Amino acid sequence: KLAVPKPITESVTKCNYVVSHLPPEVASLVRDILMNPDATDPYTHLKTELINRSGESSQQEIRQLLSGEELGTRKPSELLRNMKRRAETLKVPETFMLELFLQRLPTSVQTILAAVTDLTLDKAAEISDRILEVTPVPMEIHAVNKNNSNSMEKKLLSEIEKLNARIDKLEFSRSRSPFRRNRSNQRSRGNRQNRNSSVCWYHRRFGKNCKPEKCVSPCHFQGNETAKNRRDMFFAADITSPVHSRPDIKYLLSGRHRF
């Protein structure tokens, strides 16, 4: 008789046997368990963690595989057939497939299916087909998109108005800054000084009330050319008058005579 191998019953022995046959990528998932095995039942603990952690990885893989599947204009039953075909190489539990299928249905359909008891994949697809036949879901989606575009347009207009208000505020603050006021005051004072430097003291002091004979040349007071011409004509006429031809009058006008 051939010797019948004894079954492995010790938890430590079974754990060591499993660890020796683990692929590297699977062993990396339970590295912390391998470094610190359970003292009482290491095999059961390792088995439980392997199922939980590899199950999470497989679910992520299934989600990535079916991430491109959307309802669009298709019937829900057609969507379900495509999802099953793409995931046929993976052993996907029906409950997890039902969860993924419901996530791709419109919100209104999900609400109705949530009230259905003992819901299965085929039953969910059949009910969804009937709901979408009588419910204008595309029109509702279009209305939602239109409202979203209107709200986005209003938001953009509001932001533009805020930017314009900030620009106006900056321009107003720059116009009222002390530096710009000082520069404008300096320019105005310089212009006044330039204008005043070409006007004699009498015209700066008395303005238009200054008498022509008081004006000191060169003076460019406004309207002063006419007054200067009149003054020159007055003195020219006065000098050529018969009075100035008399010696005694010339002597008096010279100022050397004392009264």
3D structure, described in words:
By secondary structure, the protein is mainly α. Among the domains are: 11-64, no CATH class; 75-134, no CATH class. It has 13 helices and no strands. Helix 1 (11-20) runs parallel beside helix 4 (42-65).
Gist of the model:
The protein is mainly alpha-helical and 259 residues long. It contains 13 helices and no strands.
List the helices and strands and how they pair.
Blueprint: H1 11-20, H2 24-27, H3 31-35, H4 42-65, H5 76-86, H6 94-103, H7 107-114, H8 121-134, H9 137-175, H10 178-197, H11 201-206, H12 224-239, H13 247-254
Helix pairs in contact: 1-4, 5-8
Q: What's the mean pLDDT score?
A: 72
**Radius of gyration from the CA trace?**
53 Å
Principal-axes geometry comes out as elongated
Helix share, percent? 55-70%
Q: How many individual helices?
A: 13
**What kind of sheet is the major sheet?**
none
Q: Low-confidence parts, pLDDT < 50 over ≥5 residues? A: 139-144
Task: Give a count of the beta strands, DSSP E runs of length 2 or more.
Answer: 0
Class inferred from helices and paired strands: mainly alpha
Estimate the strand proportion: under 5%
What is the CA–CA distance across the termini? Answer: 176 Å
Q: What string gives the helices and strands in order?
A: HHHHHHHHHHHHH
Domain DUF7041: 5-66
Organism: Araneus ventricosus
Protein name: DUF7041 domain-containing protein
